[in-house]
Amino acid sequence: MVLPRHKLRGLSVLNVALVAIVLAIAITAYFLFFRTDQPAASATRPSVTVARGEVTASVSSSGTLQSSQTASPQFETSGTVTQIMVKVGQVVAKGTAIAKVDPAAAERQLRIAEQNQIASANSVDAAEESLSDAQDAAEAAEEASASPSPTPTNGQQTQSTQNQSSQNQSTQGQSPEVAVSNAEAGLARAKADKEQADQDVEAAQAAVDATTLKAPIAGTVTAINGSVGSVTGGSTSGSGTGSTGSTSGQGSASGTTSSTTTTSGSGFVDLADLKSLQVVAAFAEADAIKIKAGQSATVTLNAEPGTTLTASLASVSPTPTTTNGVVSYSATFSLTKIPANARIGQTANVTVQTAKAANALYVPSTAIATSGTTYTVTMADGAGTREVQIGVRGDSYTQITSGLAEGDRIELLQGSIGTTTNQNGQGRTGQFGQGQGQGQLPGGGQLPGAGTGVGGNRGR
After folding, report:
1. Which of 28, 78, 156, 300 lies 20 to 30 Å from 10, alpha-carbon distance?
2. For residue 452, how many C-alpha atoms fall within 13 Å in the half-sphere facing its CB?
3. What stretches of 76-175 show up as alpha helix (H) in DSSP?
4. How far apart are CA 380 and CA 389, in angstroms?
5. What is the pLDDT of residue 457?
6. Last residue of a domain, which of 306, 322, 354?
7. What is the C-alpha to C-alpha distance for residues 323 and 328, in angstroms, rounded to an integer?
8. Which domain of life is it from (predicted)?
9. Per-residue pLDDT for 235 more than 60?
10. Where are the extended beta strands (E) located within 287-325?
């Protein structure tokens, strides 16, 4: 079928219009997606000015508040608890009586030890007298042998001299030298027994004294692990030697009692000095090598998030602790001032300053590109990249030791500095140039939005 000429003309015009519309859309899409001006895109990246100030680096961890001095005393003398003289929460001075056990058994051992001491003292006196007699006899024998013998008229020893010599030998049965030696040995044994008896009396007296449990430190009673009527562990004993009259002898008396403690804690009571608290926190091995005793730190408590405490690193444990394959080292921090509401066991967050550079050039860490040990920044004036040397690296800012000058403008590679201060929150001052987007800086400064740059102070 053949259309009229006027209808063919109408279709041609419509086709031409459709083709023109398609071509317009294609050209527009090309310019929008393939011909975007690259320098303009570069200009939208935020830029900052190299500034001068203080840069700090630090490491952080969490731990708990603990007392710097604790004690869990236990009875050293066994017995049944008869009295408890403190209560939980009570503040006690060093040496304060805490509890008592029945002293009857310990006092009995003391009496036995004292009796043995008296007997051993008598033995020493008797041994000294025996030695004195032996020495006198030896001296008499020596003088008799040294003096000239009288000459008998018939050339024989007189009957009286013979009778005396025979009597001495029969009564002593030993030479004078042997008698003195034996007497000296007997005196030495008696003195040793006396010394042991003295020690037994001291031990028995200490056992009697230990029937009253006393606070070894000044502090607060945090727990009482026993009760009246419970049995405490311990032992008391006494022994000794003695003699009666001039006849040397030995005797002993001893007694020992023991039992298994029924208390639930490591001691009968737990004491802690709540006026001297410290923070104990565990640091990962990579951070532990950066900290050492004497470094300053800041502490915040979860119970008081708005309060920042000053602390000093007292010590780092030389031995690690491994938990689920993770190695950490315990660090202890001394607090300069303790809040009135602080309690042992509270969670504490601690930050240790590990490095600081004063009056240093610095830039946001997000402006530095790292490739191995090479560090570069991109200049905001279109001059390309520039290699720099860095110093202290904080969380948000990095010290520049060479390659840039104060006032140089560089681009932020990631478009944001972040909303956190460097580790210890020291103040920073810097101006930021033109760029797209806007971000808040600590202390009221801003990353610039589109248009003119905005200056900002990075404060505590």
Report:
1. 28
2. 2
3. 104-146, 159-172
4. 18
5. 35
6. 354
7. 8
8. Bacteria
9. no
10. 296-301, 304-316, 321-323
Please check whether residues 209 and 123 belong to one and the same domain: yes
Per-residue pLDDT tens for 302-348? 988 888 999 999 999 999 999 899 999 999 999 988 888 888 999 99
Cα of first residue to Cα of last residue in the chain, in angstroms, is: 89
Query: Per the structure block, which two tokens stand in for 70?
Result: 């604790």
Q: Are 235 and 250 in the same domain?
A: yes
Residues 90/211, Cβ–Cβ less than 8 Å: no
Q: Same domain, yes or no, for 123 and 237?
A: yes
Domain C-terminal end among 316, 334, 354: 354
Q: What confidence category does residue 95 fall into, taking pLDDT thresholds of 50, 70 and 90?
A: very high
Domain CATH number, residue 349: 2.40.30.170
d(CA 138, CA 181): 11
The answer to whether residues 84 and 99 touch, using CB atoms and an 8 Å cutoff, is: yes
Distance CA 135, CA 141 (A): 10
**Taking all residues of the chain, what is their mean pLDDT, rounded to a whole number?**
77
DSSP H or E segment with residue 380: none
Helices (H), 147-259: 159-172, 176-209
Extended strands (E) in 336-418: 347-364, 369-371, 374-378, 385-393, 397-402, 409-411
Tokens of 97: 């009586």
> 């020992």: which residue's tokens?
256
Q: Kindly state whether residue 60 falls inside one of the protein's structural domains.
A: no
Tokens linked to 171: 């009564």
115 token code pair: 């009796």
Among 65, 84, 74, 81, CA closest to 271: 74
CA–CA dist 304, 65 (Å, integer): 13
Q: In what order do the strands lie in the sheet with 231-232?
A: 212-214, 97-101, 79-84, 231-232
Q: Higher model confidence: residue 238 or residue 312?
A: 312
Give the least confident one: 36-40, 49-53, 68-72, 388-392.
36-40
Q: In 183-276, where do the E strands start and end?
A: 212-214, 219-224, 231-232, 269-272
DSSP summary character for residue 42: H
Tens of pLDDT, residues 100-109: 999 999 999 9
d(CA 194, CA 241): 7
Please give the structure tokens belonging to residue 394.
Answer: 């904080």
Q: Who's near 204: CB < 8 A, 6+ residues apart?
A: 106, 109, 110, 112, 113, 114, 236, 238
Pair 356, 392: CB distance under 8 Å = yes
* Interval 57-76 mean pLDDT: 92
Same domain for 250 and 128: yes
Nearest residue to 287 via CA among 116, 58, 450: 58
Residue 394 backbone dihedrals phi, psi, to 5 degrees: -90, -175
